[in-house]
Specification:
single chain; six-stranded antiparallel beta sheet; five-stranded antiparallel beta sheet; binds magnesium ion
């Protein structure tokens, strides 16, 4: 695969820490959105990203290695929280795409725990690839509220799975074939809470360059309110196989 990548993050207009972290290295593209008292959210997201770096250092890896590294990250968070009182209860989301090998062929493993998101943009169409692990997502699935109502619902920030829990979370890991011309947007909810899918798609259409697209998405989220930390990784697949 030939890839082009852009990364952008901002603390936003309200928060006094940036608890998001990201990694875009050697086929590993992830975003983590930390939560916890004091600076513990930052510790959680940084620890998880650090654990994912081990994956980036490997020459070859499969989808099972992605699952294994999520378990490792969960253990590291629990160990750290046990050793440091002020980190008690810290946690983080994790989502992204990782290039893996399945039966000798190059594939994407899409990984998700929590309510950060992976979108795929191709032929001018934007689709959310991950399924949010959130209370509001469950209410939408039950038909009790609409997607639009979910945006303003009091439970909108409650995640049903996160890294840093005992027992550890079951990560969603799905495998897909890379396609030339596709673009992935990996983001924290600081983007998706501020911008509807149509607005994200419009910005993507205006910026063919991956870094410019990432910068423009973060700028648009700040413009829309910037109520949370916002982090975006854009991955363009120039040529597949
Ligand atoms: Mg957030």
């Amino acid at each position: 695969m030939r890839l082009r990548v852009g990364v952008a993050t901002d603390i936003g207009r309200v928060r006094d820490h940036n608890e998001d972290a990201s990694l875009a290295e050697n086929g590993v593209f992830v975003v983590a959105d930390g939560m916890g008292g004091h600076a513990a959210g930052e510790v959680a997201s940084a620890l998880v990203v650090e654990t994912l770096r081990d994956l980036a250092d490997r020459a070859e890896r499969g989808p099972e290695d992605v699952e294994a590294v999520v378990r490792q990250a969960n253990d590291r968070l629990l160990d750290s929280a046990e050793a440091h009182r002020d980190q008690e209860g810290m946690g983080t989301t994790l989502t992204g795409v990782v290039s893996v090998t399945v039966d000798g062929a190059e594939r994407w493993a899409v990984v998700n725990v929590g309510d950060s998101r992976v979108y795929r943009w191709a032929d001018g169409k934007l689709d959310q690839v991950t399924v949010d692990h959130s209370e509001v997502r469950e209410l939408v699935d039950l038909g009790w509220i609409t997607r639009e109502q979910a945006r303003y619902h009091p439970l909108r920030n409650i995640v049903t799975r996160s890294i840093g829990t005992d027992p550890g979370p079951e990560p969603d890991v799905t495998v897909r074939e890379p396609e030339a011309g596709e673009r992935f947007v990996i983001c924290s909810d600081g983007l998706s809470d501020e911008l509807r899918d149509e607005a994200i798609a419009t910005v993507l259409g205006e910026h063919p360059d991956a870094q410019e697209a990432a910068d423009a998405l973060v700028a648009a989220a700040l413009e829309a309110g910037g109520r949370d930390n916002v982090t975006v990784v854009v991955v363009d697949v120039d040529a597949a196989g």
